[in-house]
Design goal:
Layout lengths: L8 H22 L6 H5 L1 H16 L4 H29 L7 H4 L8 H10 L11 E2 L2 E2 H25 L2
Length: 164
C-alpha cells in the first residue's frame, strides 16, 4: 500500500471517522450497549472531523486550506481524546463525574424532590463500564484512536504546510 500523503489523508480521516461512528452506532443498536452522556459527546468530534475532511476533499489541490483543515481535524481528535480521557478517569473512579454522568448526589428535601432526582438520573451511568476487551473500555479504545488520529492529522498538516 502506498504511503499516506497529505492529499490522500482527508479520505483516510473521513473513513476513520465514519468507521468510529459506525462502530458506536453498531454497539448501540446492534448489540444494545446504550451510551452514557460522555459516550454521546465523544461522537461529536468524529462528526466534525468527518465534515472537515469532506470539505478538504472538495478543496483538493489547494495546499493552504488543506493544511488548515487537517490541523482542525487534529484539534477535533485532541478534543475527543480529552473527553475520552475524562471518561476513562470516571470509569476507573480516579475522579467523580458530573451529575449528568452519575446522577444527583445532593439530598432531597421532600419526597417530591427525591422523585424528581430519581427521574432525572441517567439510565446509563458514565462510571460503569458497559463493555471492555483486554481490560480496556470503549472509552479507552476511543482515547487511543483519537490520539492516533490526532497525531496522523497533525503530521499530515505539517507535511502539507511544507509543500506550500
Amino acid at each position: 500500500m502506498a504511503m499516506a500523503t497529505p492529499a490522500r489523508s482527508p479520505v483516510l480521516i473521513a473513513l476513520a471517522s465514519a468507521g468510529a461512528l459506525a462502530a458506536a452506532f453498531l454497539a448501540q443498536y446492534g448489540f444494545d450497549l446504550q451510551p452514557c452522556i460522555l459516550c454521546i459527546y465523544q461522537r461529536w468530534p468524529y462528526g466534525v472531523a468527518l465534515g472537515i475532511s469532506l470539505l478538504a476533499l472538495l478543496l483538493a489541490g489547494r495546499r493552504a486550506p488543506l493544511t488548515v483543515l487537517l490541523g482542525l481535524c487534529a484539534l477535533a481528535f485532541m478534543v475527543n481524546a480529552g473527553i475520552a480521557g475524562y471518561h476513562v478517569g470516571i470509569e476507573q473512579h480516579w475522579w467523580t463525574g458530573t451529575e449528568a454522568c452519575t446522577g444527583p448526589s445532593g439530598e432531597a428535601g421532600s419526597v417530591r424532590e427525591l422523585l424528581a432526582q430519581i427521574q432525572a438520573t441517567p439510565v446509563v451511568r458514565c462510571d460503569e463500564v458497559a463493555w471492555s476487551l483486554f481490560g480496556i473500555s470503549m472509552a479507552g479504545y476511543n482515547l487511543l484512536a483519537s490520539l492516533a488520529l490526532a497525531g496522523f492529522s497533525l503530521g499530515m498538516a505539517r507535511r502539507a504546510g511544507r509543500l506550500i
